[in-house]
Design goal:
Elements (H helix, E strand, L loop, with lengths): L1 H46 L21 H4 L11
């Protein structure tokens, strides 16, 4: 009798958990999707933010480097074409 009672209780608990997941899962997915859309929208709006005319903001100025890559690429090898 104890085994039957345990099995019925376990089945009832699993059924209850299944029903709760069936009800709560769509709300959780909707919340996750809404949060992702908000984050994507914030990133997009930040990139398109424009300063009013007359204000200039410089984030980074690269250092001036005058490296000639043609001189440091390698040696020129003279060759003859063989026919």
């Amino acid at each position: 009798m104890g085994l039957l009672r345990f099995l019925l209780t376990a089945m009832a608990i699993f059924w209850l958990i299944k029903q709760l997941i069936r009800l709560l899962f769509p709300f959780l997915i909707q919340k996750i999707v809404h949060k992702a859309q908000n984050q994507a929208g914030q990133t997009y709006s930040y990139k398109n933010y424009r300063q009013p005319d007359g204000n200039i903001r410089v984030d980074y100025i690269p250092p001036n480097q005058k490296n000639s890559k043609a001189d440091t690429v390698g040696d020129f090898v003279d060759y003859e074409e063989i026919k």
